[in-house]
Amino acid sequence: MRKRDASDVLASLVAVVSDAAAVWGGFLGATWLRFDSGWIPLLRGRPDGLYVLYGGGAAAATLAMLLVFRWQGLFVRPQIGSFVNKIPRLVRSIAIGLVLTTVLAFAVQNEIEYSRLAIGLSGLTVTFLVLLERYILFRIEWNLARHSRRSNRVLILGTDAVAAHLQRTLRREAMLRSKVIGFLRTDLGEPDAGISAELVKGTVGELPAFLREHEVDQIILAGTGVPHDRIVEIILLCEHNLITFNMVPDLFR
Known about the structure:
Layout: H1 6-35, H2 50-71, H3 87-107, H4 116-146, E1 152-157, H5 161-172, E2 178-185, E3 200-203, H6 207-213, E4 218-221, H7 228-240, E5 244-247
Parallel strand pairs: 1-2, 1-4, 2-3, 4-5
């Protein structure tokens, strides 16, 4: 819902590096559990050059896992919502990555024989480390965003209950770093009680004049009753002024 800035790009890069470290560490942790922990009998002995052999395989598996994470959109910033809601997609992505890793391991079995038990254990170790690492990153990003300047200036078109709810949501989502600078009416109805009168800056017909007098980063159309041709004009105006445009879909219409 907002344009990516330098902090979003940096957060994405940190997530890539942190995920890589967690995944690689998870695979090596499974290797240690299998061969050096002493908890599992070594019926075939300990392979020579164990960590060089499995470290190379872990590096290839980490690359495959990162590609899956990117495919699943796990590096997109800013993050929205609670961490709990992100766990199912994280677990699903890890599972897909582990299946891909298993296929790769069996593909090179004639040259290198990897322990099936070690691969199975990696499912637990990688999942644990990635979830732990992702939770720590989420808390760091959330706290940084909460204490940073609200740099995304948002203008909402509409003054009904949907517009008021949108304002509350933008205030609650610290990651968006958004500040509602005003509302423009799209109809003749009374503004919702949750919208302060001083934030109502006029009507949608006054949008060009408002943009000439104020800096706006994002416009969100929340009100109903705006004709399609008027919406097209608003979109073109946003493109001309390099402003991000979003709209709340009218599900009833």
